[in-house]
Design brief:
By secondary structure, the protein is mostly helical. The chain has helices at 8-32, 36-41, 54-62, 65-96, 102-111, 117-131, 137-141, 148-159, 164-171, 176-184, 189-204, 208-213, 222-232, 239-259, 261-268. The radius of gyration is 23 Å and the shape is globular.
Amino acid sequence: MSAHRLSPVAWILVLLGAAIMAAPLLWTLLLSFKANGELMRDSAAAFSAPYTLENYRAILQGSSLLRWLANSLIVSLGTTAGMLVLASLAGYGFARIDFPFRRTLFVFVLLGLAVPEQAVILPRHQLFATLGLHNSYTGLILPGLVGPFGVFFMTQYFRAIPKELDEAALLDGASRLTIFWRVLLPLTWPAQATLGVFTFLGSWNDYWWPLISATRSERFTLTIGLASSQMNYAQTSGLGFLMAQAVFASIPILIVYIVFQKQIVRAMAGTAAR
């Protein structure tokens, strides 16, 4: 249905829903521009001038937020890059190469979709503690590379590409690796972009594993760092400073959405495969 066919009632409902969704964001933004002293007296002061950039200046001058931001970027980019490489190679193998127990192994991978992360968190914690991987980037990235959905997604995409391309390349003397790298992989960029965006967002917003693995402040990701700030903001930094941290931390994820909004919308609509 096109937008101009919406009835007045539908428009009112849409606008009302948009206002409800945007209200917490606007409230956070307004609080971030207010002095902490004013908010301590009355949080309703957010709706009146004067506004200040002091909270953002404090972030750039001495807050740990930039450190947590760098940690989140390293972990999210590392997880995304690793996921794309592993899922693409596994998807190509399952879709194009005939090897013993291929179907059995693929079913085994799919069974991973039914296993919740909470069910394996204790043995994973013990394994990483034994290997000394806690409080390290490696320890934060490795669990995110286990992605049965990514393998399934890329396998289905590779299967949709005509096999005649492989046969023509083989006749020209190309190896399997050459076919994967130069022929098929460039055709999967839409799927790579979709999988990459969702992997990045999932890793960026992850709270459960970093809470367990990163116990030192210098290895906190943004989610853990902001949560630790919320526990004592009233006694230390102040509400305005906390909201400024939240706004500042959301900038990278906003950039990712703006750049890849087409892929996100297509994936949400269920048409990312083509």
